[in-house]
Amino acid sequence: MKSIDVNFLRKKFESVWGIDTSYYGTTGKVPSYGQCAVTTMIIQDMFGGDIYKIKIGKDSHYFNKINGKVVDITADQFGDIQIDYSGAVIADRTKFAPETIDRYYILRFRLENK
Questions:
Q1: What residues pair up with 51 in beta bridges, in sequence order?
Q2: Which string of DSSP letters, residue by residue, matches 40-105?
């Protein structure tokens, strides 16, 4: 498995996240706002592992688990909340909504052509 430099990944994704890749169709106070599902799909493409889903308040949040380690470069969209990953369930990316898949392809294209 490739080594994961979380800080490098975060900077790379920040340079390509946009309104059209955000779940909410908008940006928040941080660049990762609404970007978790599409980001986890690309990280899974790059490093393998599984995508997990948890609830934070009313919102669903997605993150990766690779070799037993949580990789979550979009956690800051929830501010200073300490995320409890213990209740997470594996998410099946083939069941993501079509619009999420569309956003994934936009983000993947940008990342590959950056």
A1: 64
A2: HHHHHHHH--EEEEEEETTEEEEEEEETTEEE-TTGGGGTT----GGG-EE--GGGS-HHHHHHHH
107 vs 41: CA distance, rounded Å: 10
41 close to 110: Cβ distance less than 8 angstroms: no
Tokens at 2, concatenated? 């490739």
The dihedral of CA 75, 59, 110, 94: what is its sign? positive
Task: Sketch the domain layout of the chain as residue ranges.
Answer: 6-112
- Please say if the pLDDT value at position 1 is more than 80: no
| Cα 12 to the center of its chain, rounded Å | 13
Q: What is the pLDDT of residues 18-71, one digit of tens each?
A: 999 999 887 778 999 999 999 999 999 999 999 999 999 999 999 999 999 999
pLDDT tens, position by position, 70-83: 999 999 999 888 99
pTM of the predicted model over 0.85:
yes
Helices 36-47 & 98-112 angle (0-180, nearest 10): 60
